[in-house]
Design a protein that fits this description.
The chain has 997 residues and is of the alpha/beta class. It contains 26 helices and 46 strands.
């Protein structure tokens, strides 16, 4: 085969004619049309060579789509190493593409693609095309073109390969001529497609076939990759089929930054040398974030003379020679700064030393693919990283756990992201009009005003009349059913600080309209402060009537344990038309509202709906909002939920304030038994594993510390003692209510809490962020404020018919914990053996910082996880020293408090299981027996992954044999009922109570 390179202009183009230099590009194209592509699939059973299943699937999907009437861009998702380039070759030849422009992100990928096209890669080797099918004329664009004569020469080719940066140097005339002459566009590594240089090229191919190939069809910036996913070969399947090498993670733990690089290097070199001694053809890459860092790291590796380390970054000279030497295996260690990335095909790269972590999971997924390619004489990929590095991004945190399985994690993350992308594409398929709005990753604030359409005419096309001289339309979209309209405008308004007409403020605003035909309601959203919503409504729905007044407050319905944050009132008092109230002031206004001396103007509050914390605000004038932002499709679903409430005539808005949580400022603690106390939410939201508590020279891990309330004597008091249980040690924190209604926290010990690499006085922190105290009547106390529900709204009595009586023969019901000795006569041991057949994993979590005494987990088909929490409590001994089941209310308080406190874990099931993993490691590290009574540690790690991506069913049970089913008292049922009410309100979980006969 003769390969001739012919330069045109200033080394702008390289011509690469085929094996038959006498044929021009048109004759070559005719040879493709006269021959048939053979779709031969490989078979391991018959040892037949051919295309891999992902390649066959991608080719069929692309060719079928190309023959359809859909002219939108098509995306083919194939993980790295599954043969993406050969798939591109195949669709060009089998699809008989007349002239194809292929854009790639880098020079190295451009050269790699060129090399495969001039010989048609594996297509000839596998016998997929006959001899009569000629190789293409391939043109490679290296620089810009400004003369149309050069374009004429360039178009004497079948395949044109370029980077968008090279095409950006073209004159407009030359670029237009080039793209107009091409029949197809293929974008490789298409997650770059929303970048301006890429998007400009893509926009030139409207009404022409566009195929986008990528392993990661999602972006870090939230913008969307326009194009329907027509084929997705899951990463998990690539792993199972052997196209994606398994990954071994080798963590090191080094807290001293100056020592971390050496520790990483030593481990990576050890792994590389072991692989080489085993006869594997492996190369190692050490990743650094900057050139300065790379030079520092290179000094460590430069001592390994026999491995001939090389430093690679963008400023080194003679890159081509260095890359050639690397491919020839002259260097076994490469210290690299963002080089050898997309398109660099070297399957021998198998050891990665991550001296600097990637900032996003998307980039990490792409980077990982460089090391998982398969070829002969290579083994599994190996990654080395410092898991003690606190700078790991939250999205990468799961990868950098000590026992993390990278194969499952990256597969699950990739699958989840692609699933979300497909869901959005199904929503996007409602829109056939081209619009950038769908690709910008719109996240409008959640708010709307609602109109009844009645007999109004719905004419969304009239929105263009909304634009005036001071604004211009930027973009718009309208779905095919003409029910969802969105447009963005740019407005120019004079600045306020001068009379000059030369200066203007420029603002960008988004407007959304959604017409729900099933309810005949119109929802309008505007990001502008003034809104102009009424003007828009008059244009697109003339005659529609805005919903305002009392019915708007129906949107507050359905929120359990609703805490009103603020309320605005219109009053008829002279000199006072409007007043805003917060905190305890809200309660004082309710009599005025009931007596019609004031009307509701606006209300905002937070509560629980379907077991999820949510917020809602509403105004008498008609606006409804939440303190949140989300995607366009999520906004539509939110509007539908709100609209259903607005139309529900059974909702009495006068009951909204009556049923909301009320608040009072305390002068002293009420005569109500406190069930439990929990850390302030600001601490619970932090990474608990990194928080430490210090006292008297002792250091405690936060996850093994717990707050509880000391014994209560049922008398009003200005103070309560809170016990800080840290392992086996106890410290007293006294909470005191002052006459001014403030709560202060103090301790005779100096308690220090450490987080975010800083020390804080614990009691001072609690003064600023008070803990939450759960009371026996379902009320809560935070600082000097008590939040409580109207007494008439809730029946606190637990239904005794719902209790379950067990036989406790052989159990000493005064012994609660089985402890590490596994005491067989304990309540906990008996409970574990009673329930364990119904679960895959049973975990003994008893002790300070517990989630529950017993956590039981069952996996259902990998798409549903059952997590049940069991809270055990011993029976108090009577006067004769014998524990006897009865009706003592003291036997209920503490266990009810533990149950109510534990449901916070249900908001993040993955974090719950992660906590169990940490507590198991700590137990084993201290030489004690395992906390796992059924199942394995590997099961825990597996369930942690499933919890992240699957549905979780939750349950809470109280196990208290001290309660007698025959003698259960009303006081006991009231405490259990209060716990049941709180748990149901906040999580939607029904409380189970297990007692004695």
């Amino acid at each position: 085969m003769n390969v001739i390179e012919n330069n045109i202009g200033l080394n702008t183009l390289c011509w690469l004619p085929t094996n038959d230099a006498s044929m021009d590009h048109e004759e070559i194209y005719k040879s493709w049309c006269k021959t048939n592509f053979l779709f031969i699939e490989e078979s391991f059973v018959s040892e037949k060579k051919g295309l891999r299943p992902p390649q066959i699937g991608g080719i069929y999907a692309a060719l079928g789509y190309e023959k359809s009437d859909d002219l939108s861009a098509a995306t083919v998702v194939m993980p790295t190493g599954t043969g993406k380039t050969e798939t591109i070759l195949s669709i060009v030849i089998a699809g008989r593409f007349q002239r194809t422009l292929i854009i790639v992100p880098s020079d190295s990928l451009r050269e790699q693609t060129k090399d495969k096209f001039i010989k048609l890669g594996l297509l000839r080797e596998l016998g997929l095309i006959p001899h009569q099918c000629s190789n293409p004329v391939v043109a490679v664009i290296k620089q810009g073109v400004s003369k149309e004569t050069n374009i004429d020469a360039l178009l004497k080719s079948n395949i044109i390969i370029a980077t968008p940066s090279a095409l950006s140097q073209f004159s407009e005339e030359c670029l237009d001529k080039l793209t107009s002459a091409c029949s197809h566009l293929i974008a490789d590594e298409a997650h770059h497609i929303t970048a301006p240089t890429w998007a400009k090229i893509k926009s030139s191919f409207e009404q022409k076939p566009i195929f986008q190939f990528t392993a990661t069809p999602f972006r870090n910036d939230g913008s969307r990759i326009e194009g329907r996913i027509i084929f997705n070969y899951p990463l998990k399947k690539a792993q199972d089929d052997g196209y994606f090498k398994k990954i071994q993670f080798h963590p090191i733990t080094e807290f001293v930054d100056d020592l971390a690089d050496t520790a990483i290097a030593e481990k990576a070199i050890e792994l590389l040398r072991a692989d080489l001694e085993a006869g594997l053809d492996h190369i190692m890459m050490a990743r650094a974030r900057t050139i300065t860092r790379a030079k520092k790291i290179f000094k460590i590796y430069s001592q390994e003379k026999d491995l001939n380390p090389i430093l690679m970054h963008s400023k080194i000279s003679n890159t081509k020679a260095s890359l050639k030497a690397i491919k020839n295996r002259e260097h076994k260690i490469i210290v690299c700064v963002d080089m050898l990335g997309e398109g660099f095909d070297l399957p021998q790269l198998k050891v990665a030393a991550l001296h600097d972590h990637h900032k996003s999971i998307n980039i990490m997924l792409q980077f990982t693919g460089r090391f998982t390619r398969t070829t002969s004489n290579v083994g599994e990929a190996k990654f080395v990283a410092n898991i003690a590095d606190p700078k790991v991004n939250d999205s990468l945190e799961e990868l950098y756990n000590e026992d993390s399985n990278w194969n499952d994690i990256i597969s699950n993350i990739s699958s989840s992201k692609i699933k979300h992308e497909k869901s959005y594409q199904r929503f996007k398929e409602q829109f056939t009009t081209k619009s950038r709005l769908l690709e910008l990753g719109l996240t409008p604030n959640i708010s709307t005003t609602i109109y009844r359409m009645g007999m109004a005419d719905w004419k969304p096309d009239k929105f263009e009349s909304f634009i005036n001289k001071q604004s211009q339309l930027v973009d718009f979209l309208l779905n095919d059913e003409k029910t969802i309209l969105a447009f963005s405008i740019k407005s120019f308004t004079p600045v306020a600080w001068t009379n000059s007409k030369e200066l203007f403020d420029e603002s960008w605003d988004l407007y959304i309209a959604y017409y729900d035909r099933t309810t005949n309601l119109l929802y309008l959203h505007s990001s502008a402060k003034d809104g102009f919503v009424k003007k828009l409504a008059e244009l697109i729905a003339k005659g529609a009537s805005q919903i305002h007044g009392e019915n708007v407050f129906r949107s507050l319905s359905g929120l359990k344990r609703l805490k009103l944050q603020n309320i605005g009132l219109n009053k008829s008092k002279k000199g006072l038309r409007y007043s805003m109230h917060t905190g305890t002031e809200i309660n004082d206004q309710i009599p005025d509202i009931e007596a019609s001396r004031a009307t509701k103007s606006n209300i905002f509050g937070k509560g629980y709906e379907n077991g999820e914390l949510t917020s809602i605000g509403c105004s008498y004038k008609g606006k409804i909002w939440a303190m949140d932002s989300n995607s366009l499709d999520a906004w539509v679903k939110w509007c539908q939920r709100v609209g259903n409430k607005i139309l529900d005539n059974s909702i009495d808005t006068n009951e909204v304030l009556k049923t909301a949580m009320q608040v009072e400022t305390l002068k002293e603690y009420p005569d109500i038994v406190p069930l439990s106390v929990d850390w302030p939410i600001t601490l619970l939201r932090k990474n608990n594993e990194t928080i430490k508590i210090h006292c008297n020279g002792q250091e405690y891990s936060f996850i093994e510390c717990e707050l509880s309330v000391s014994e209560h004597d049922n008398k009003s008091s200005s103070s309560i003692d809170i016990i800080l249980q840290a392992k086996d040690d106890k410290y007293i924190i006294t909470a005191t209510i002052t006459q001014s209604g403030e709560a202060t926290f103090s301790s005779n010990e100096t308690l220090v809490i450490q987080f975010s690499q800083k020390d804080h006085n614990l009691t001072e922190l609690l003064n600023e962020h008070p803990p939450t105290i759960f009371m026996a009547d379902t009320s809560t106390i935070e600082g000097g404020l008590r939040y409580f529900l109207p007494e008439d709204d809730y029946a606190y009595r637990y239904n005794p018919d719902n209790t379950e009586a067990w036989d406790w023969i052989g159990v000493d019901i005064s012994v609660e914990s089985q402890r590490s000795e596994k005491l067989q006569h304990s309540i906990q041991y008996h409970t574990i053996n009673k329930i364990k057949d119904g679960y895959d994993l049973v975990f003994d979590d008893d002790g300070s910082g517990e989630v529950a005494d017993i956590v039981a987990i069952k996996n259902i088909n990998d798409d549903t996880l059952v997590i049940d929490l069991f809270h055990c409590k011993y029976c108090l001994k009577g006067k004769n020293g014998i524990p006897t089941p009865g009706a003592r209310v003291d036997d209920v308080y503490q266990v009810a408090g533990q149950a109510t406190k534990s449901i916070k874990w249900f908001s993040k099931p993955e974090a719950l299981i992660e906590r169990l993993i940490t507590r198991e490691k700590t137990r084993l590290k201290n030489g004690a027996t395992s906390r796992i009574d059924k199942g394995t540690f590997d099961d825990l790690k597996k369930f942690r992954k499933i919890a992240r991506y699957s549905k979780v069913k939750k349950g809470v049970a109280i196990v208290q044999p001290a309660i007698s089913q025959a003698k259960i008292s009303n006081e006991q049922l009231q405490i259990l009922g209060a716990a049941e009410t709180y748990i149901d309100d906040v999580s939607g979980v029904k409380l189970k109570v297990i007692i004695s006969e």
